[in-house]
Amino acid sequence: MTVDAAATPRSARVSFRQMFAFRLALGMLCLLLTVGVVWSAAHWSERRGVFDDIGYLRQAHLFKRFGVAGFNTDIKLDDDHFFRDAAAEIRHISWSDPSAPAAFMHTYIPKTGAWVLQYPPGTGALLALFPQGHQTAGLYASSTIVVLVVALILIFRAASLPLVILSGVFGCMAVYFMNNPAKASYSAAPSLALCAVIGLLTPRLFSEGGRCRLAVAACIGLLLGLCVNLRIANVLLAGGFGAGCVLKLLRSHFERFKAETAMFLGTMAVGLSPTLIANAVNAGSPFSTTYGPADASPPDFTFRVVLEYFRDVQGILLVLSITCVGLLYTRENLKETRVPALVAMVNIVVNTAFFFTHTLHTPYYLMPGLMLSLWIVLASAVDSQPSLTQVRSASL
Question: I want to staple 369 with a disulfide (CB 3.0 to 4.6 A). Which of 10, 48, 110, 351 is the partner?
Fold first, then answer.
């Protein structure tokens, strides 16, 4: 039976106007916060007196100076004293010692006899895309805009008012995190941006009736691989996706999802290839680490480190993400959200297990893993709702 549009109850038409008003208001709030983060980043100094910063900037300087040859981070290439001068601004170093400038943020590789940067090349490569003196501002501004776009997509795709509000609140929170705590490390901002995009795509990969799943699998694999070029620990973000692929294969008795799994693994290998190249150049083998013994040490669980995480925002996000994943998994009427929920939960477990057994604590170590899980939960909840077109059709 067809109902005339003119006979549509006024309350239904008003509800759509209210939904649009909420979307617009929350979208504008996310936009204003983004402007604030970008404005703040534009006034940051690239020389904050942090050795990690100048390590990433040195990689960027090498790419700007030598192009692709910038993969080689041997301290001998600091013949223009870029790193030496920057390090001297932070701490007095006895430059009579030939290895002195290399002792900070560098590792000695006996196989090659060289002092090389310990970081993967991704963050430096991104910094190199922007003009010197504005590299940090460019990196943080572009990363924050990516997060804003993902938040706006979810805000305007959500079909119910609670999900619109939830998407807006979470979007504002995600944008704010691009300032604090992401400011603590240049690698954190692009990692969080990529996690937002990956989280947005995840439900499309594991949905039963999803279209273009091969393309989605390729995108997710490539983005996860690129994440590893920013921080080696980002390889842990792939753990949940591996579990999700295995579950889909087992459920179909290996009759379906083989092409998606192969595509995911193949594009991830392509994405992390810059790190393998950097390892081969600097450490003598694609699978040798450029990190020193302190970072490559065996796990060492201590309650002190765990308590440190629960004293900052990461502890709150950990509890929130576990709760949200549990709620998503137990939705009986939407069983297809269980695989994304499993992906998010495995991601949480793998990341917290690693960093809780890491001897160091920072305000951002858990952030990529936790934010990825929360983006997955939010995107799955939004995708599981009927589209706005379907809602409008149902009311007519």
Answer: 351
Decide which of 80, 109, 124 is a domain's last residue.
Answer: 124
Question: Which domain does 98 fall in, by range?
Answer: 51-124
pLDDT digits (tens, 9 = 90+) for 181-194: 999 999 999 999 99
Supply the pLDDT for residue 332. Answer: 60
pTM (global) more than 0.70: yes
Whole-number pLDDT of residue 95: 67
- Structural element, H or E, at residue 20: helix 10-42
Q: Are 37 and 140 in contact (CB under 8 A)?
A: yes
Distances in Å between the alpha carbon of 295 and those of 107, 129, 203, 332? 11, 28, 34, 43
Phi, psi of 116 (to 5 degrees): -130, 155
Q: Which two tokens stand for residue 346?
A: 């495995």
Quickly list H helices, 299-360. Answer: 303-310, 313-329, 338-356
Peptide bond into 203 cis (omega under 30): no
CA angle 204, 209, 215 (to 5 degrees): 45
Q: Are residues 105 and 119 in the same domain?
A: yes
List the one residue out of 244, 247, 250, 248 whose CA is nearest residue 224: 244
Structure confidence at residue 104 (pLDDT): 79
Q: Per-residue pLDDT for 1 more than 50? A: no
Between CA 377 and CA 150 the distance in angstroms is 14
Total tally of structural domains belonging to the chain? 2
